[in-house]
Design goal:
The protein has about 425 residues and is an alpha/beta fold. The chain has helices at about 1-5, 60-75, 85-95, 105-120, 160-165, 175-185, 210-220, 245-250, 275-280, 300-310, 315-335, 365, 370-385, 405-420; strands at about 30-35, 35-40, 45, 100-105, 125-130, 145, 150, 155, 170, 190-195, 225-230, 255-260, 270-275, 340-345, 350-355, 385. It is built from 14 helices and 16 strands. Strands 4-13-12-11-10-5-9-7 form an eight-stranded mixed beta sheet, sandwiched between helices. Helix 2 (about 60-75) packs antiparallel against helix 10 (about 300-310), helix 3 (about 85-95) runs parallel beside helix 10 and helix 6 (about 175-185) packs parallel to helix 7. The chain binds 4'-deoxy-4'-aminopyridoxal-5'-phosphate.
Length: about 425
Amino acid sequence: MQRARRVIPGGVNSPVRAFHAVGGTPRFMASASGARLTDVDGIEYVDLVGSWGPMLLGHAHPEVVAAAQAAAARGTSFGTPSATEVELAEEIVERTPTEQVRLVSSGTEATMSAIRLARGFTGRDLVVKFAGCYHGHVDSLLASAGSGLATFGIPGTPGVPAAATEATLVLPYNDPVAVEKVFAEHGDRIACLVTEAAPGNMGVVPPEAGFNELLARTCREHGALFVSDEVMTGFRASREGMWGLDGKVEGWAPDLMTFGKVMGGGFPAAAFGGRADVMAMLSPEGPVYQAGTLSGNPVATAAGLTTLRLATEEVYDRVGHASDVVAAATTEALTRAGVPHVVQRVGTMFSVFFTDAEQVRDFDGAGAQDTRAYAAFFHAMLDAGVYLPPSAYEVWFTSAAHTEEDLDRIVSALPAAADAAAA
Ligand code: PMP
């Protein structure tokens, strides 16, 4: 870590990997297999981070590794169209309400491009987002809410000019009145509303019944596009993502969607897509520019395609079972130790809030956590060989590779960690 800090800011290439929220020194991983991570000192951990979502099948799945190796041997990048890109796009279109997708290399690129496309298609500038939803480090989406209910965003970080966020409106999540109000006031200037299909970046905050449907309907009524960010939930919450649990059942579809994480099988691959008439606005057929040297990379798309093809309903059952076991045992241990908490879940995804609230419905609720108790819990689990997210605001990601032995190891570590959180 000392060497890393000399040449890499904070020693990490993405801030969330540092142990800023929980204290201590991050572990440097040397290898991973199934549900286990092994660090450079040879210590093994049962993993509940899963690279922040992609590792649905577990680490180093033999068929995914073989597909990536075979693809790499055929050439690591062509800079031309290739068959695997088409197959991956077909797989995404088959599972989602998108008609066309364009492949990119990160979730950030996907949402950035979807926003540009929505603005180009509608000829409008305003973007509506929710406090606590993360869509990557896109300038216009790194907006914090000002004071008041529905406010024009102020930059959430130095380096983002005020001009980049002044066309972004930030609303509280799960608040239909705020949505109706902002559209009543600015509806004819709104290009799109972007939301996580089910927020996972403030911990799991399920959309209340009918909320996404209201967003879709309100956007339609005002000629704005509804952009559903499924970078985290896509091919994770269920085989058809969060849409499969919500829109498919309620009878609505987003105009645009974004994907990442699972669809890349652990490689840099992401996508945005949706209605064919909207996607037709994209370069080269339309005027909205978007491009990428490594977009649709043959190694990444081979790993992603293999991952999606292996991700059958049976896989989602196993991922869901692992979540059932860990969530139930965590509740039991924390309850016994007298630690206030609430577990929230969508599909196979869940997170644990260290709060005495009965329910967390928005960013303010998520913020009211005992992060000190979480830090103690986190370190006790780490010492017992379980790798949890190093922040209280994150999903605990399970995989289809979590065996009963892996789950037992987590379950047996919980009581002592719950005591540490109570202390
Ligand atoms: N959208 C959502 C919902 C995400 O969870 C993330 C990443 N956590 C992103 C976008 C950004 O993806 P990436 O980190 O690949 O840029």
